[in-house]
Amino acid sequence: MKQVLKAALVAAPLAFAGTAADADTFVRMVSGPAGGSWYPLGAKIMQVLGEEVPGIATSNTSGGGISNVKAVDGGDAEIGWSYAHTSYNGYAGRGKFDSKHENVRHFATLYPATFQVAVKADSPIKTFEDMKNANISPGKAGWTGTAFAESILKAYGFDFAKVKENGGTVHYVSYTESVALMKDGHIDVFMAATSVPQASFIELQHSPGIRFVGLPQAKLDQIIKDNPGYITGSIPKGSYEGLEADIPSLGIVTNMVVSKDLPDDIVYQMCKSFWKNHATFAAVKKVWNRVKLEDALNGAAIPVHPGAQKCYDELGVKAAS
């Protein structure tokens, strides 16, 4: 029986391989914003899966780590990008989730992402404490990067509401819009949880010129203690032109989740195709070289989809003890 679309996604999806008339099952991915790694990788992944997995039609649309878990749980998508910490919070009804999202299942662990914070090269802002009245773009509401930002500000004793009270502004916009706002002088701070290096920061390096803001070890320890699933990360020296020292920051492990209602045989075929085409995806974004089959179950804090589990059993993949 053909699966019925429960709701149209706000952003128009990029569709691949097959039509509603041709396919028995729609597999809609929610990935990330334009300008990040998730969206172009998601587009290629869904193109490949649509071509190789019989009986499915696929699409890819933009999203964010938190909203993607909600979309998959609610039936507005069948597969989504997120983070191990975010997926667990959704499943358990913690953090930014006001109820349990128990329809999501683990599909694959991918690569670590790093929280990156940039100000203009000549900005007087040196630490997060200096951002109490700044003009900030932390990403869109529902993005994991925005939750990262809130966790950091909390460790410094203020929040976005306080920033606004102090005369600052908070812009919940995309990477592309954030770049434009910084170039035009409308924001002082751009924040994003993404791969290193990332295209938006590279663009801002060239104009108007930026400097990264890191976190001292004491704050890192505090934030990680308060937010299980966060890990220590860094922007390594040399990642961006002129970056001469590592920038200490927060990290989190990227993953993909699927709907528990997606048939086992389809998820099994998707998993096989997904890992068979590793080189194809690495050609889209170099960060994919950090994705390893042997890590596919590491950090999975929610149940693994039975179809994916069958795939990993055949491939000899086990979670690290």
Automatic annotation (TrEMBL):
<dbReference type="Pfam" id="PF16868">
    <property type="entry name" value="NMT1_3"/>
</dbReference>
<dbReference type="InterPro" id="IPR011852">
    <property type="entry name" value="TRAP_TAXI"/>
</dbReference>
<keyword id="KW-0732">Signal</keyword>
<feature type="signal peptide">
    <location>
        <begin position="1"/>
        <end position="23"/>
    </location>
</feature>
<protein>
    <submittedName>
        <fullName>TAXI family TRAP transporter solute-binding subunit</fullName>
    </submittedName>
</protein>
